[in-house]
Amino acid sequence: MPTESPFHGRIAPLCTSYAWKQWGGYYAVSHYGETHLAEYWAFREACALTDITPLFKYEVKGADAARLLSRLTVRGFAKMPVGRVAYTCWCDANGKVIDDGTVSRLDEDRFFVTAAEPTLAWMSRLSRGFDVEIVDVSERIAALSLQGPTSRDVLKQCSDADMDALKYFDTTQAKLDGVELQISRTGYTGDLGYELWCDAADAIKLWDALRSAGRAYGLEPAGIEALDMVRIEAGLIMLGVDYHSAPHVTIDARRSTPYEIGLDRCVQLDHGAFMGQDALRAEAARGASWKMVGVEADWLGLEQLYASYDLPPGLSPAASRATLPLYADGEFAGQVTSSVWSPLLKRHLSLASVKAKYAQLGSVLQLEHTVLYERRKVTATVVEKPFFDPERKRTP
Amino acid sequence: MATTYDAIIVGGGHNGLTCAAYLAKAGRKVLLLERRDILGGATVSEEITPGFTFSSCSYVVSLLRPQIIRDLELSKHGLEILPLDWTFSPFEDGTSLLRGPDGEMNRRNIARFSPRDAERYPLFGQAMSELGRLVKPIVEAPALDPSKLNLSTLIELLRLRKHFRGLGEDAIAANLKMMTMSAYDFLSEWFESDRLIGPMSVSGIIGTFLGVRSPGTAYVLLHHYMGEIDGAFRAWGLQKGGTGQVALAIARSARALGVEIKTGCPVARILMSGDEARGVVLENGDEYRAKVVVSGADPHRTFLGMVGEDRLDGDFARQIKRFKMRGSSGKVNLALDSLPEFPGLAVDSPALKGDITIAPSVDFLERAYDDAKYGRFSRQPFMDCVIPSLTDPSVAPPGKHVMSIFVQYAPYKLKEGPADWENQREAFGDAVIDTLARFSPGIKDRILHRHVLTPWDLEQTYGLTEGNIFHGELSLEQLAFMRPVARWARYKTPVRNLWLCGSGAHPGGGIMAAPGQLCASTMLKARAV
Fold first, then answer.
1. CATH number of B4-43+64-77+242-323+472-525
2. C-alpha–C-alpha distance, residues B328 and B454, integer Å
3. Which residue in B232, B394, B400 is closest to A341 by CB distance?
4. Cα–Cα distance measured from residue B305 to residue B464, given in angstroms and rounded to the nearest whole number
5. Could you give the number of structural domains in chain A?
6. Which end of chain B is less packed: N or C, by CB atoms within 10 Å?
7. Predicted confidence (pLDDT) per residue in B110-164, tens digit
C-alpha cells in the first residue's frame, strides 16, 4: 500500500483520471487528465510540475564528507565548488552499478545526495572511519521538479533567487513565498528546468505558489507517463528499466558497469581510491563489451511493415519499457530497453543496450516489432543521443 | 544577366518553398522570389501588436504530408506541431457539447442530446478513416488524366484499381455518396441531433462559397479524417510560434539544400520568348532567367496576372477565368487580456486548448450563408476559434492570450463591390465579436487589440485572388484531374516551361505541401529541369 506524499492534498483532486502508480512507496500520478499528451507538450512548450518526493534523499555532512562521497561514487568531490551539482553513479567492488543520482555541495562540509533506491545502509557501512554524519532526509524533504522552457520565468516571478546567475547544474538557497528552499538547475527532461527541495511542512505552500505564478506561463502538473517520454527523448536512463542494480539481480549478465550504460563521462578513474576502481580501470583498458546507444526505427520500414497487413502504422502514444531484441545479420545484437514515438521529433526512438561491435553510429540493426500478434522485424539504426538537446538547457 | 538558374519559384508560400526544396535536393540550382518582406504567403505569423504573435491567415496545420516532414527534415528545422485535441461547441441556450480524445466522455456528452448519435459517433469515425484510406493514394500522387489514355496512365489506373478493390463495396458506395451529397445530408444519414450535425457539418464548408446543405460539401468532411491514417501523426495541430514557423522551417530546409531565397521581390510578369517562359521580371525591372519558372501563386494571378491573357490559348484563358476563386471567409485575430469564459466550461478546462466552434445549428449556418448569397457578410457568422497561447505561451506575453477566429461567410464580392470592404471591415469585425459575445459573455472587455482580415485584405496583402484561402474552391468540379482545369492538372501548364506548384494545383489547399512536392517530383520525372 503506497503512502501519500506531502503534496498529495493538492495533487489528488487534480488527478481526475484516477490513474495512479506506485513510485518508491508513494502514490505517483501516471497522468492527470484524459491523456498524458497535454502534459508532454507542457514539458516541451511551457513548463510542467512533477512531484519527485519519492526520490531517496540524504544529507552527508562532516569534515570528511567530500572524501567519503569520492570514495563511494565514481567521481571526485574534493574540488567541486559549493553551489554545484554533479550527476554520478556508484558501483560495487566489481565495478557494477548499484544506482545513479545527483550530489550537490551545499557547503564545504555538507552535501545532498539523491538516489533511486534506499542507500543509507550501504553508505553507512562504507563510512566507517570517516568523520561524517549521514542523515536520511527522504521523508523530511519534499521535492518538485519544474521543467520546460518557461520554468525560469515562473521562478523569476515567485522566488528571490537570481535565476539568471543559476547555471546548468548549479544549486542555490532561495525563498519562495516565505518558504525556504533549495533550487537546483537539474532535471530528468533534457531541457531547461529546476528541481526544488523544501521542508515537507512547507510542501503545500510551495505547490500553491508555483501553480499561481505558473498560471501565466502555461504551467501544468505532469505525471510519470509524460516524464517517461521526455526522459527518453533526452537519452536519460532509468534504474530498473535500462539497467539493473547490481545487488538486486542474481546473474552477472544482468549487471552493468558505468561504461556499459553510457555513464562514461561520470567516471574519473584517477580521483583517488573508490569503489570498483580496479575493475573499472581494467574495463577502461579492455573496452566495455556492451554499450548503451540510441536507436531509431526506420519509419518507412514501419510503414511498409504495417502496410503488408493492410494497416496504418499503429504506434502507442505512450513510452514503452518493454524489452525487445535487436539483431544483426540474424544474430542477437542486444536489446531495446525503453522506446517512444516522439511527437515532437516525429521519430521512433529507443534506448538500447548492444554488443560493443554494433555500437558505432550508423550501425544498421533489426528491431523486433509485433504487428497483429506476429513478431516481425524492422530496420533500426544506431543514432546520436540525446535525441533532444536544446540550447536553452545549458545557456544562461 | 549574370546568373542563370535551373528553376525560379515565384512565391514563398509553403508550397513554393517545398517545391524549391525538393528541386534543390535533386541538385538543381533554384531561386525563390517572394513579393513580401516576410516568407510564408498565407502560412504566416506576424506580430501585429507588440508581444502578440498572430497566425494571421492559416491557423491550424492539417495534413502536412509525413513524407515531406521526413524528406526535408522539418523537425530539425523547427517544425513543432502541438495537438489540438478538443472541440467545444457552445449553443445559444447555454448548453454545450464537448468532444475530445476520450471516447467514453464523448459518448456521455453526445448522449445528452441523442443516445443513438452517441453510439453512432465512434462508428462514423471508423467509417471516415476507412474512406480516408481510399483517398490517400489519390492525394499522394499527381492527378490522373483520364483524357490521356497512355501506358503510364493505365499503370496508375491499375494500381488504383488494386487499391480500391481491397476496400470493399460499402466503402466505395460511401465514397460515391460523399462525392455528391451535402455535408448536412451525409451527416443526417448517420446522426439525428442538430447539436451534433451543426458543429460537424462546418468542416464541409470551410473555404467554399457553399452552405452545409449545398451538394458536394460532404467531400471536404473527409479531410478531417485523413491525417489519422498516418497513425502517430496528428491530423490537426498548431505550430509552435505560429503557423508561419511551418513555412520558415521549410525555408530553412530549402536554404540548407542550397535554394537562394529573395524577399521583397515582387514579380511583375513572366518573361516570355514566344510561347515559352524564360524567366521573370520584377516590378523594379530586374530580370532573372531560368530554364523553368514555377509559380506558387494561384491560377488567376499566375495566368491572367503574370503571363497575361493575350499570351494564352483562348480556350485555356476562358477556363482559368471560370475557375472559381470567390473567397468566402475572413479572419479576426484578437489579443486578449485574459482567457475567455464560456458558460458550462470550467475556467481551467483543457477544452479551451482545442477548437471552439460557433456553429450552434444547421439553420444558424444556413442563415449565415443566406447573407453571403446576396452580397452581405453574415450578420451572425460561423466561427472556428483557437487559443494557441494556451498550449504555446511563446506567442503572447505572460498571462495574456491570442485568439484566432476563422469567420465565414465574408463574400469577396460585396453588393457594393469588393473594394467596399474598406468601409465595411470594422462593421464585419463588430458582427464577429457581437456574435461571439453571445456565447462568451465578457469577451469584449478582454480585447486588447483586434485585427480584422476581410477577403479583400487576403487579396491585397497576401495575394490570394478574391481572398480564396485554397487558391480556388475545393469543390468537386475543381478537384483532381480538373484542378485547375482539365488536361492541365499535372502541374504542367500550356505555357512552355511554366509550372504550377500552389494550392490551385492538385490536391489543393491547406498546409499540406503536397502540390509543391508533387510538382517538383513531376518536373524531375519529366526531366523538365
1. 3.50.50.60
2. 9
3. B232
4. 12
5. 3
6. N
7. 999 999 999 999 999 888 877 777 777 777 778 776 666 677 777 776 776 676 6
Q: What DSSP line would sit under B3-29, residue for residue?
A: -EEEEEEE--BHHHHHHHHHHHHTT--
Q: How many CA atoms lie within 13 A of B121 on its CB side?
A: 25
| Min Cα separation B81/chain A (Å) | 7
Q: Which of A36, A43, A45 to mutate to test the interface with B (most CBs of B within 10 A)?
A: A45
Whether residues A150 and B390 touch (CB distance < 8 A) is answered with no
Return the residue matching grid coordinates 483532486: A13
Q: Within 10 A of A162 (CB to CB), how many other CB atoms are there?
A: 10
Position of cell 515532437? A344
Give the residue-averaged pLDDT of A250-263. Answer: 96
User: Rounded CA gap, A9 and B170, in Å?
Assistant: 54
Query: A214: which chain B residues are within 8 Å (Cβ-Cβ)?
Result: none
Partner residue opposite B166 with nearest CB, options A299, A310, A341: A310
Nearest-CA distance from A154 to chain B in Å?
Answer: 10
Among the residues of chain A, which ranges form H helices? 8-14, 37-45, 65-72, 120-126, 151-158, 203-214, 224-233, 277-286, 299-307
- The answer to whether B12 touches B296, Cβ cutoff 8 Å, is yes
Read off the DSSP letter of residue A34: S
Instruction: Look up the ipTM and state it.
Output: 0.85
Q: pLDDT confidence of B251, banded at 50, 70, 90?
A: very high
Domain contains A313: yes
Cell triple for residue A16?
481526475
Please give the average per-residue pLDDT across A259-278, as a whole number. 96
Which cell numbers hold the place of B194? 442538430
Which of B105, B228, B233 lies nearest to residue A34, judging by beta carbons? Answer: B105
- Residues from chain B contacting residue A149 (CB–CB below 8 Å): 394
Q: How many CB pairs under 8 A join A and B?
A: 78
CB contact under 8 A, B350 and A34: yes
From the list A230, A255, A236, the residue with the least C-alpha distance to A102 is A236
Query: Tens digits of per-residue pLDDT, A42-71?
Result: 999 999 999 999 999 999 999 999 999 999
User: What residues of B are in the A interface, CB distance below 8 Å?
Assistant: 66, 69-70, 75, 79-83, 85, 100-102, 105, 133, 166, 228-234, 240, 350, 353, 390-394, 398-400
Preceding amide of B409 cis, omega within 30: yes
User: What does the DSSP assignment read for A342-387?
Assistant: ETTTTEEEEEEEEEGGG-STT-EEEEEEEETTEEEEEEEEEE-S-S
| Kind plus residue range of the DSSP H or E element containing B122 | helix B115-139
Decide if A38 and B393 are in contact by the 8 Å CB cutoff: no
List chain A residues with CB under 8 Å of B228: 312
Nearest CA in chain A to B136: A312
Task: Report the pLDDT value the prediction gives residue B149, as an integer from 0 to 100.
Answer: 65
Residue finishing a domain among A101, A127, A153: A127
d(CA B419, CA B431): 19
User: Are A33 and A176 in a shared domain?
Assistant: yes
Rounded CA-CA distance A14/A30 in Å is 12
Q: What is the pTM of this model?
A: 0.90
Q: Cell numbers for A79, please give them.
A: 574540488
Task: Return the CATH number at A74.
Answer: 3.30.70.1400
Q: Do A343 and B83 touch (CB under 8 A)?
A: yes
Compute φ and ψ for A350, nearest 5 degrees.
-140, 155
Residues β-bridged to residue A352: A293, A336
- Render B193-238 in DSSP notation, one character per residue: -HHHHHHHHGGGTTTSS--TTSBTTHHHHHHHHHGGGGTTS-SEEE
Is the residue at A395 inside a domain? yes
Domain extent, residue A204, equals: 8-50+139-222
